[in-house]
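Task card 7
Instruction: Convert sequence to structure tokens.
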Amino acid sequence: MTTEQPSAVAPLLPSARTAPPGENAERGDPSGAETSARRGFLAKAFGVTALLSAAGSALGLLRDLLLARYFGASQGTDAFLVAWTVPETAAPLLIEDAMAFLMVPAFSLALVLREERPHGPDPVRQLVRATLPCLLLALCALSAATALGAPQLVDLLAPGLADPGLAVTCTRVTALTILPFGVAGYLGSALRAHHRFTAPAGIYVAYNLAILTVLLTCHGVLGVTSAAVGVALGSLLMAGVLVGPFVRRLGEAWRLSEGRRAARPGVVVGSGQGLVLIPLAMLPVAAFTLTRQAQVFIERYLGSGLPPGTISHLNYAAKVSQLAMTAAILICTVTFPLVARALAAGDLAAARDRVEKDLGQAAALVLVGTAFLMACAPSMVSLLFERGAFGPQDTAATAAVIRVYSFGLPAQALIGVMVRPYFSVRPVVRRADGPQTDDGGRRLLDWYPVAAMAVGLLVTVVVSLGATSRFGALGLAAGNAAGITTTAALLLRGLLLRGIALRLPKVLGGQARLLAAAVGAAVLGAPVGRLAANPLLSTLIGGACVLLAFAVLGTVFGAGEVRGPVLALVRAVNPSPPAAEGKLPDGR
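Output:
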């Protein structure tokens, strides 16, 4: 494998279209058996990923509950949360977003080449040899630089922090997460491209278990620093969970490749049958992820000048709000390899169809969660956090921030769906036998998501500065929601420019129906939730009302993502009677 500058979009795609098994099945071309197999795979992958991700999220919520119980919303918690910025930035950059945007399409293209040319050198192993050693060196250097520059980093992120010394100590500990996070993201991307989802979905279970263990055993001795130590230990366990499955998968592929070569000893492999690494393709992806994460930097910077505890209220609110996005992100995680494989094989129509489905399904899930948060935020925060050092005033402040944050949740989910296929069109590798020319317009398009995110950040800053002096933390949350919504609108346009021609009337019409159902559900659920004084009962009653109202209104408004499951549930509960009772199977 060699390296070069980015190439054009078209050379990425083979002249003869070879879609992955079952990809056309979603469009109704092949047999029903193939369609059923593809749906079965998606259902199984989603089920496994959902189960393990839900476990990881539950443990993460328990982690936040312990932080609130032991340390409340205090200066010490604020200091840790500034240090938490390091893993909070490294996770999307190295695990969830940038690494996946780069390596899932790269491994998908390598797998397409392996299927097309089974008797040459294994493209997957070529890819690993060309990328993994350089990645490890870069991660080690970045981790060391972050630890050494911790004082300057803390001063940059939160100049008004009351206890910068504690924040510096925690930052140096959390800097150790960068290397294992990057390894985990790389190995997880490779496994998902191979349609192996169990181990990648389990990494946050291991991560949060380590944090909980250290918190429970060491909080009295180390104070809030125990949380930072747990984060560092958890990151090591994340990478450890994936090493075994990755090595086994690579070994299986190598043995299969050797067997094929042994069966065809006379085959001569040309030098142009591999992959070419495109280093500069990494820059727009990394820049987009960092720019997106900069919203957190803005909140921490402006929040450090507000009363102590403000950063903590924003953090707890963000963690609760993100729960509404968990299922939507799982859809992207499971279907991303399918989109990347379709684009690598040149099937833009299949990629478009899958993205349209993902936009609708992700919006349905995140909007019902948003309606629930709007209706039940106070009772939910009281149920989860109000104990120990976390008092009623903290509950009221956090619940108010959640409601403002919720206005931006649908846009966050849509960005997660749209940016994956956008970056998959031009992955970090290309075919060695493709043309090597490029044009400036294509290169500029690579930076379109960064520009869209930059415009969103500008909106965030303007709204936050204008509203913070009057509304405090609520102004910061409003800036976040306004900025991310602006970015989502711009990315929808950018996806069309990238060549994935979404049918906008269909997409926007579906989004409007889902939004109307969510607004109605929130309006109906809020007063119902207030009928009970007990937080648990209030949350259950309000949540049940929101879910029922969303299902009814979504069905009435004709939202397919709601109507389909509702009708399926009705048929399951009340199956229709046989057409002709009393007859034998042959109809007599």
